[in-house]
Amino acid sequence: MKKLILIAAVALFSLGVSAQKYNAPLATPLKVSAEDAQARQVREALLNGNGKSVSNAATRALTRVVEPEGTPNDYFLVRSELVDWLGFLPERLTKETVYLSADGTKIYLPNMVWPSQFGSTPNYVEGTVSGNVISIPAGQVVGTMQMNGVTYEFYLAAVDIQKTNLTKKITPSYDPIQLYFDSSVGLITWYNSTGTQYNGAYIGLFYDYTSGGYTYTNNAAYVASPSYFSHTFYADPVTRQMTYRDAYTGESGSAAVEHHITNLGLHFMKGILPDYSDVYVLFKDAYEEYDPKTGEGIGDPIGIMTGVQVISDNRVMFASDGTPSWNQTNMRNYSCPFIYDSTTDTYTQLATPTRRLRDLWQETVENEGGSTSEKYIYSHDYCDMIIGKAAGSGISGVETSTDKEAVSTEYYDLSGRRISAADKGVSIKVEKYADGTSKAVKVLK
Q: Which range scores top for mean pLDDT: 11-25, 130-144, 152-166?
């Protein structure tokens, strides 16, 4: 079997750093079209760490300016988020609730940038839907923060690729943030199937301040490549039992894993990191061979793989090679594959080459003599992981028959809105059974 390797799209310099053990988790972004010169320029600006987050915020309070209206729909949000001490943007996966108005013309999207700084209540922005395009007016305030006795309003805007200066700061665009709504697969993203890039590829959180009689705009945080995946287009999650060994603590254990299988070759798992049981981790289909030109997998997938991701603010999970040290190049390039066995319905972590799932963060520690320094800390190094057979597996895709009797039947249109009955064209029929499983079927009328 050939080695499973995921090549990083952006090569960073190799900086060897030792991680300190603390006593008390993709190597590439989602598959997208080639970026043009302007997009590459702004990505370089993001990678160079321009416009870092405001520090020394005294108090934080949420200001929610939009009350969402309409039908709630479960989505998974994948975005590339800055990790200050790394200087690049790994992916982060969270489960969110998106609202769509009854007439389908308004949509409310939550927690796009830096939500943890404004409290636990989701902060929404409002957009309008016209055909396949979502337009979100720039300047919507998602929260406030008090610094040095002054209250600042933080608002979202697309990054102005034309005006962003690589050596200074990231400039906001006051044109609407635009995203593409692919209702055929339940996907909200920043580019369409033909490779057209919209004004939502890079979204910044900005605030204005006054000094010396002048008003300035500063960038507090930013994300890249935001995508929302609708839960309606795949079956209910299955529960798997996982066994593992922690190479750092020496302990072995088991945990329940919630496994969501999408219709786009992606897998969302909660519980895969036992000490971060509420965190969702993104996996992709893994292949034995990849096309060197397109990066597409060749043949059928042989399992799943994961790699570097944000698991909480400024804390990541990555695929380690078992050694105490790490470097940015390996962190971006290494993946952790799990090989699938269809006869037992299990995923087994690849043992050769050595790959483990390790947490990592930066922490200020006090040295002898009272000085302080920044240390890289990890507390777990998960290996020998086997994700066992699903308990009460759900059913995905189109089914022709079943011996079970449905206890409820619901219908949805292709935008994810619940409807009373199958509508003209294609609808989604979801049947739920007494044993907790469900079946999603596309209905053509």
A: 130-144
Q: Which residues pair with 98 in a beta bridge?
A: 73
Burial class of 384 by CB neighbour count within 10 A (0 to 12, 13 to 18, 19+): middle
What pLDDT score does 193 carry? 74
Q: What single-letter amino acid sits at 22?
A: Y
Report the distance separating Cα 355 and Cα 319, nearest Å.
6
Residue 27 has pLDDT above 70, yes or no: no
Residue 186 · residue 180 · CB < 8 Å: no
What is the model's pTM? 0.75
- Residue 60 burial by Cβ neighbours in a 10 Å radius (0-12, 13-18, 19+): middle
Mapping DSSP onto H, E and C, the string for the chain reads CCCCCCCCCCCCCCCCEEEEECCCCCCCCCCCCCCCHHHHHHHHHHHCCCCCCCCCCCEEECCCCCCCCCEEEEEEEEEEECECCCCECCEEEEEEEEEECCCCCEEEEECCCCHHHHCCCCCEEEEEEECCEEEECCCEEEEEEEECCEEEEEEEEEECCCCCCCCCCCCEECCCEEEEEECCCCEEECECCCCCECCCCEEEEEEEEEECCEEEEEEEEEEEEEEEEEHHHCCCCEEEEEEEEECCCCCEEEEEEEEEECCCCEEEEECCCHHHCCCEEEEEEECCEECCCCCCEECCCCEEEECCEEEECCEEEEEECCCCEECHHHHHHCCEEEEEECCCCEEEECCCCCCEEEEEEEEEEECCCCCEEEEEEECCEEEEEEEEEEECCCECCCCCCCCCCEEEEEEECCCCCEECCCCCCEEEEEEEECCCCEEEEEEEC
The backbone torsions φ and ψ at residue 328, rounded to the nearest 5 degrees and listed phi first, read -65, -35
User: What confidence score (pLDDT) does residue 330 get?
Assistant: 77
Instruction: Please compute the mean of the pLDDT values over residues 211-224 and round it to a whole number.
Output: 82
- Are residues 336 and 354 in contact, defined by beta-carbon separation less than 8 angstroms? no
| pLDDT above 60 (res 92) | yes
Looking at residue 62, what is its pLDDT?
A: 33
Q: What is the pLDDT of residue 273?
A: 96
Distance CA 71, CA 332 (A): 38
